[in-house]
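User: I'm writing a tutorial on reading structure tokens. Could you give me a worked example: one chain, its sequence, then its tokens, then a sentence or two explaining what the tokens reveal?
Assistant: Sure. Here is the example chain.
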Amino acid sequence: MATKPKHRKSDKGIRETDIKKLIHLLDKIGQGIELLYYLLDNKRQDTFVVTLFSAEMDDLKAFITHEKRKTDALFTIDKSENLYALLCQGTSVDGGYYFMNRLIKSIQKKGAKDVYCSEIEVPNTDHSIQEIAFRLLNMYHRAKTKKADGEISFYTLR
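And here are its predicted structure tokens:
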């Protein structure tokens, strides 16, 4: 007689899909954050913002590319989810918030749905790149779980 495998009541680990997404996120933005850390360490920059966002919209990447500054770096994280990351040099969380708020309003006017956005301001090099990516992805997933369509979740690392 076969027995059923026991399942843990509480699994505090990270789901496989999230691990893979986190690794992919690190692959895409990790070196960019390293460069921005170098600029912070050498007093060439005060702060920067890392943004993770998605929306159900055709040509979202083209729209963002047109709207972002020349100094902002845009990365495709997951084409199937229309998920993108943006590194904004010399930007505080306020500046990042205002930019994303304007962008969200613009894409919603164009019919975008399911718009999710999380931002982290990085004012120093005290935190690992992995921590930044983990917090950012965690904030993004919480926004999607809460169905916080069109809202911006933001955090400043201290």
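What the tokens reveal: Helices lie at 16-41, 60-67, 93-109, 129-145. The longest strand covers residues 113-122.
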